[in-house]
Specification:
single chain, alpha/beta, TIM Barrel, 11 helices, binds phosphoenolpyruvate
Length: 247
């Protein structure tokens, strides 16, 4: 089955209002892209990005949401608030959230359900640490995290999976192409088992971790890779568009 590729940018805690110039450059090229495009700026920029991107195929997303819709959760943002600000998607379970905020698979699963409740696409992140890979446990660890973080009712319309080896994020290091292919095949098999054939085949699985313009083409050509979740290289429109152009 042909799944349309998705290139998603995660700006993390970077970007002030002046960064809208980068967004405008992405918007100039978004309509001609051969893949779907998503940008996830910090929450402060979601409203301005979403209003500028209105009518374009570029999807604006958040980087995290709370599991509840309202309540006494100082500093948190509900999925409904992101949707109200114009977001159409949200990343949940990024390894930096898991490490910095102690988020576990059960909470990530609740956040994915919160995203759907607000009609946002959930981009669910999973990945192994370097110690887990060195111990030969990468496949097992990722399969367990995927099963714990992904609600059984996930569909191709509501959900994207991002495989992001923790040790590859921001490090300039990536797994070998064979290792990426092996992990994506493993994730695909798990999705088919958990979600059934139709949704299990339809859900897109992105690779994330040090994707740059100079390695994007080879990574995106790996069997089973349906796109990329890009951190640092998504901050500059030129680099983000070069990665999208490698599809
Ligand atoms: C990320 O933060 O999701 C990511 C993949 O970062 P980078 O591309 O900078 O490694």
């Amino acid at each position: 089955m042909a799944r349309r590729k998705l290139i998603a940018g995660n700006w993390k805690m970077n970007g002030l209002r002046a960064a809208v110039a980068e967004l405008d450059d992405v918007l100039d090229d978004a309509a001609g892209a051969a893949c779907d495009l998503m940008l996830c700026p910090p929450a402060t920029l979601v409203p301005v990005f979403a209003s500028r991107a209105a009518g374009s195929p570029l999807v604006i997303g958040g980087q995290d949401c709370h599991a509840r819709a309202t309540g006494a959760h100082t500093g948190d943002i509900a999925a409904e608030m992101l949707a109200d600000a114009g977001a159409k998607a949200v990343i949940v379970g990024h390894s930096e959230r898991r490490a910095d905020h102690g988020e576990n698979d059960a909470l990530v699963r609740e956040k994915a359900e919160a995203a759907w409740r607000a009609r946002l696409t959930a981009v669910i992140c999973v990945g192994e640490t370097e110690a887990e890979r060195d111990a030969g446990r990468a496949l097992e660890v990722v399969a367990r995290s995927l099963a714990g973080s992904t609600p059984d009712t996930a569909t191709a319309e509501t959900t994207v999976i991002a495989y992001e080896p923790v040790w590859a994020i921001g490090s300039g290091r990536t797994p070998t192409l064979d290792e990426i292919a092996e992990m994506h095949a493993h994730i695909r098999a798990a999705l088919r088992e958990h979600l059934g054939e139709i949704q299990g085949i339809g859900v897109r699985v992105l690779y994330g971790g040090s994707v740059k313009p100079d390695n994007a083409a080879e990574i995106l050509a790996v069997r089973g890779v349906d796109g990329a979740l890009v951190g640092g290289a998504s901050l500059k429109a030129r680099d983000f568009l070069a990665i999208a152009g490698a599809v």
